[in-house]
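Changelog note: in this version the structure field was regenerated for every chain. One regenerated record is shown below for reference.
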Amino acid sequence: METNLDGTTTLPIPRCDYVNAAALRQQNFGNRSRLCPGLLRMTLLLTLGWVAVAPAAHAVTPAPDGGYPDNNTAEGTNALFSLTTGTNNTAVGFRALYLNGDGTLNTANGSFALENNTTGDENTAIGSNALSRNADGRDNTAIGVSALDLNISGQRNTAVGHEALQFNTASENTATGFRGLVNNTMGTYNTASGAFALSLNDDGSNKHGEWLYCARQQHKRQQ
């Protein structure tokens, strides 16, 4: 503090030092660089901790088997036993698709399903003995025990139900229900819906039938 001639005092002016900006930036960078190893270690520890608590992926046990070349799948004793050039077939069950050689795009699920199929393509058989005798028929669907069992060369048939279209050898028939069109052999373009529907038809064609069972009496509607 300084005293003026008139007796007043003047506070000293603070001294301002010029700051070297480049030096300051270098200093801050050095401070940050000293912090980086700590941050890296913390990040690493957090990552390892997450990996440790993350749920582990487990493969199914036993590992899936049955996969073969050309997108074929076989599971069961002698399933797809005779396969040669066929592709995209799935056989699950004892002797399913047993004789299939070059048939393609067939699905057999059940013992003896599509057992005798050799060259037939695009058939689906679900149930024991479903389409069992089919040899070269194609585009058939059989769901149920012995459905379309004796079909050999028939095409584009659909049978849903136990023994539906069991003895069929013709084409273009549809049976839905227990033993529907069960005795049909040569008839074509028939449609049966319900248990025993058109069960007595053997070679008639273009028929539509339905059986209805009641407690005391049986009614049949056919046109």
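Spot check on this record: Helices lie at 21-53. Residues 84 and 102 are 6 Å apart (CA to CA).
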